[in-house]
Amino acid sequence: MINITIIAVGKLKESYLRDGCKEYLKRLGAFAKVDIIEINEERCSDNPSAKEIETVILKEGERITQRIPKNAAVIPLCIEGKEYSSPDFSKLIEELSLNSSHLCFIIGGSFGLSDGVKALSKTKLSFGKMTLPHQLARLVLLEQVYRGFSISNNSKYHK
After folding, report:
1. What's the 3-state SS for 84-136?
2. Is the pLDDT of residue 56 over 70?
């Protein structure tokens, strides 16, 4: 069984997001051991300067890097990442799991991920050009990982 760690900046604030994530975590239990690590969001002013945003991204990046499991294949979610169809994402999970028994997806905070975190992987993932709140991105990621395993296992979930 593969291990999956999701490192996410911030806590889920809305009950509907917590409930949705809980459901997909339950479903994923048949395919993988999934851990979610929440990293505290760095505080900043209501109208942060470019320098303050850069500091936030760097500090969050340091906390993220410290929590990445050893020997894990790192997959950061970022706008410059590659977009995949669900079947192609399923293949990606299969390919990555051939070389590593541990996958680590990383979801940054409101300002994104540091270049240092992005540089830890050649495989970057994007859900498209639209911006998603990072809490919603967690739910979408869990659903797509579940869908990927369902495709690989010829489940009826993916139509």
Report:
1. CCHHHHHHHHHHHHHHCCEEEEEECECCECCHHHHCCCCCCEECCCCCCCHHH
2. yes
